[in-house]
Amino acid sequence: MATFKVESEQHGELNCWRISNERADLLIAQQGAQILSYQRIGEPPLLWLSDQAIFAQGKSVRAGVPVCWPWFGNLQRNPEPVQAMYGGQQAPAHGLARTRDWQLLGVEEQGASLQIEFELPQARGQLPGWPHDVQLKLLIELGDTLSVSLTSRNLGDSPVTISQALHSYFAVSDVRQARVEGVDGLHYIETLADWEQRQQQGALQFAGETDRIYLDTPQALSIVDPHWARRITLTCSGSSSAVIWNPWTERAKDLPDMADDGWQRMLCIETANVWDDVVELKPGASHSLQVKIASDAL
Ligand code: TA6
Prior knowledge:
By secondary structure, this protein is mainly beta. Helix content is 4%, strand content 45%. The protein has two helices and 22 strands. The chain has helices at 80-83, 248-254; strands at residues 5-11, 14-20, 24-29, 34-40, 67-68, 103-110, 113-119, 134-142, 146-154, 160-162, 164-171, 179-181, 187-190, 196-199, 204-205, 210-215, 220-225, 230-237, 241-246, 266-273, 279-281, 286-297. Strand 6 and strand 7 form a beta hairpin. The mean pLDDT is 97. Bound molecules: 6-O-phosphono-beta-D-tagatofuranose. The site of 6-O-phosphono-beta-D-tagatofuranose has 10 residues, from strand 19 and strand 20. Keywords: Isomerase. It is an enzyme of class 5 (isomerase). This is Putative glucose-6-phosphate 1-epimerase. Belongs to the glucose-6-phosphate 1-epimerase family.
């Protein structure tokens, strides 16, 4: 007996699927295999979908969980082995996977959860400027929690080095009231101050534009949202780095797909393999980057 409902939806130029049951509602786009929204029934949204999101081919949606692969951010800021993998002209920010159509391999119930699996066929040697042979799959599991797992398997005969992230946008009542726990004492790269290395004191509270790479991260990080009386917990594996981002007032004004005050209702914690945490895949090797997202009342 199917307990999940799966419906096709069109959002602008993008093919999407809405998957729902009595506990949660999930919207996924074929482009980028990108989760666009996730809400547990009776709670505010867990993942944030911008009010001014643009649903266009070739453009990542400002929402949910964009998959950054086979590099994160500006390629020029990546370690040399990641840069050396790319032979194209202009390297798009956050790689090549988030703006391409993935193939839906299957939707299957496993006990009380639903597994949705995607593959990016072009990763097998057909990405422009990136001629390596990697099987790239994304497994989304919807149950009591939401789990997202990105697996890269090197099918070629030479090593492949990647950086990557599950660039998750979380919904909060007001970022100025929220805090991120689990970062106390960690070293981080302050990308807004010449990529200087600093050390975090206490929980992270937001008081301005934030764009940091946290290093040697623990398995669990959480977002405490006092107004919504909610804690969102991220449990990560295959990762020891995380990027935390909020554009704040001025950067948000420059983003055409974010309302001028949209920054107040979101923050990104991006489960990542970046900086000195990039992944080298020997021929035949595979790596999975995973985040499980849960929420509890405070
Ligand atoms: O992860 C942080 C970051 O790299 C920021 O520097 C900011 O640019 C953000 O991602 C969003 O990037 P995008 O290309 O999606 O506009």
